[in-house]
Amino acid sequence: MSAANCLLSEDQFLCSICLDVFTDPVTIPCGHNFCKACIRKHWKRNVSRRCPNCKKVFYTRPELLVNTFISEMAAQFRASAQQEASSSSSEQQAAEPGEVSCDVCTGTKLKALKSCLVCLVSYCETHLEPHLKMPGLKRHQLIDPVQNQDGRMCRKHNKPLELFCKTDQTCVCMLCTHSDHKTHDVVPLKKEYEGQKAKLGKTEAEVQQMIQKRRLKIQEMRRSVELSNEGADREIADGVQVFTALKESVERSQAELINTVKEKQRETEKQTEGFTKELEQEISELEKSSTEVEQLSQSEDHLQTFESMKAALPTKDWTGVSVRPPSYGGSVRRALNQLEEKLSEQMKKLLKSELKRVQQFAVDVTLDPDTANSYLILSVDGKQVHCGNVRKKLPNNPERFDTIANVLIKQSFSSGRFYYEVQVKGKTGWDLGVARESINRKGLITASPQNGQWTICLRNDNEYSALANSPTRLSLKSRPQRVGVFVDYEEGLGPLVSFYDVDAAALIYSFTGWSFTEKLYPLFSPFLNAGGKNSAPLIISPVNN
Fold first, then answer.
1. Segment 205-229, tens digit of pLDDT
2. Which residues, listed in sequence order, are joined to residue 431 by a DSSP beta bridge?
3. Which distant-in-sequence residues (6+ apart) come within 8 Å of 80 by Cβ?
4. Phi and psi (nearest 5°) for 473?
5. 511 with 436, same domain?
6. What's the pTM value of the predicted model, to 2 decimals?
7. Residue 80 counted as domain residue
């Protein structure tokens, strides 16, 4: 038997249907051998009686008799193969839950190494060997192990899904192309896979780009949180400093008020005590004199009585002497005035600190000539603008303001914070602020946040207003020479547009509570020339923090 094992290869003991060692091998008239159960099942599934190997057709079903010689040889080979499998299986890993197991293994299921797309079976290393050695099986397509091989068969025709219908975007078998998908655009599944694989490469690049963008967004958000924390810490520190100073000032003013009142009270008490002692002394002397007078009135010694009556009595006139309660009126008012001065001082310090912070967001901006009204005259460097007396012939492009003497900045902003400063010295009228991209630029425009414009203005040389939905007159302590404009596009409590008197370090006005949903552009209007009275330019100034 050992000699037979040497002469016969293991391929000769494998059924070409089940690809396993023969069980009850039978020989059909064409000479090919199969497991008895395998060939019966094959002929039962197919109407025509054909040999699975040579395709010879048998018009009557052949009688199936077991080939005892091959049966004995197969049994001997199976024993040898099982012995080899048992030694090799100890080296192979058993399939873990969730892993693809070998469909051929009996008993302990080993981990599958490959799946065959033709056989629709998954094989461990041992049972995969026929596919690696037998010429007929080498042509089968092997892939990494996959579950649910039955899903790769056409449910209608029980044939492998080898084609792809591009019309219906579904996998089909060969018989489907002769029925439901007869007129459809059908290509080999492998070809479609290659095309989809190329698209997957592009999709993968897009996915990676999306991942990168989201990672950058996370970094941006984390940086925003860091800035928020820094701002919060700074604001708390400033607040604690201000309120600590105010608290100390209040306590100091309170102490001074109490000391002043008590000092006046003590002086009154001291004065009253002095007068009281003096009066009590005189009363004592008068009472003594009264006793003496009474005794003298009863004496018979006229000479002694006359001499005793000569003694001087107290002569001080107390009619005009009085103790007037001190006036405490105005003490509290004066203390509050001092507190008001202290609060004003702290407010100035706070505004200076605030202005320095917003100046850190300074941006370099330049006027956009394509948006300028045709009466406006811009400097070559785009940093100055004033209103002329002559209308220039310019293209009436969609970006240009045709009626209002406005001009926008080239740069736009759709996130974050920005700040710029404008010199308004020598002007009797101007408008400054920001406007959204979609602002109306043709005809008469009512400046208001509702119309997409957040601005303040000067009119008639001394009338300052915030152009809110209802214009608000502003009362300023000083005349601004430089105006700072700060915009926080994503302020936590609502977008913010603030205006500062830079030289006085004073807040002029703030717009809050509006949502920004598009690009913002800084807006300038030098206003009308007014016969030369308002000919001074608006000048974009470098920020000196």
1. 888 999 999 999 899 888 878 877 8
2. 457, 525
3. 5
4. -70, 140
5. yes
6. 0.52
7. yes
**Does the residue 52 lie in any domain?**
yes
Give 428-437 pLDDT, tens digit per residue. 999 999 999 9
Residue 477 lies in a domain: yes
Kindly report each contact of residues 74-80 with a partner whose C-beta sits within 8 Å and lies 24 or more positions away, as own/partner. Answer: 74/13, 74/21, 74/22, 74/23, 74/25, 76/1, 76/4, 76/5, 77/5, 77/8, 77/10, 77/13, 77/21, 78/13, 78/21, 80/5
Q: How many domains does the chain have?
A: 3
User: Tell me: the pLDDT tens digits for 178-203?
Assistant: 888 988 999 988 888 888 888 887 88
At a CB cut-off of 8 Å and minimum separation 6, what does 247 contact? none
**pLDDT value for 432:** 98
Indicate if 338 and 378 belong to the same structural domain: no
Q: Tell me which residue of 186, 150, 151 sits closest to 168, measured CA to CA.
A: 186
The amino acid occupying position 526 is P
Question: N- to C-terminal Cα distance for the chain?
Answer: 102
CA distance 429 to 457: 7
CATH of the domain at 505: 2.60.120.920
pLDDT for residue 256 is more than 50: yes
Looking at residue 495, its pLDDT comes to 58
Same domain, 247 and 277: yes
**Which tokens hold the place of 488?**
């926080």
Q: What are the beta bridge partners of residue 442?
A: none
Q: Is residue 198 part of a domain?
A: no
Alpha helical stretches, state H, 134-188: 135-138
* Cα 334 to chain centroid, rounded: 50
Residue 394 has pLDDT above 60, yes or no: yes
What are the tokens at 289? 């004199």
Among 330, 404, 324, which residue's Cα sits nearest to residue 371?
Answer: 404
- Rounded distance between C-alpha atoms, residue 499 and residue 508, angstroms: 5
Residue 228 lies in domain: 206-307+329-351
- Cβ neighbours of residue 412 under 8 Å, at least 6 residues apart? 437, 519, 520, 521
User: Is there a contact between 429 and 459 (Cβ–Cβ < 8 Å)?
Assistant: yes
> Most confidently modeled of 25-39, 106-120, 300-314, 373-387?
373-387
For residue 173, give the amino acid letter: C
Residues 135 and 128 sit within 8 Å (Cβ to Cβ): no
Contact present, 504 and 478 (Cβ < 8 Å):
yes
Q: How far is CA 327 from CA 265, 330, 368, in A?
A: 10, 9, 68
Token look-up 């400046």 returns 447
Give me the CATH number covering residue 60: 3.30.40.10
Q: Output the six-digit token pair for 146.
A: 């996959």
Q: Find how far residue 48's CA is from the centre of its chain.
A: 70
Give the residues across from 143 on adjacent strands: 115
Please tell me whether residues 433 and 297 are part of one structural domain.
Answer: no
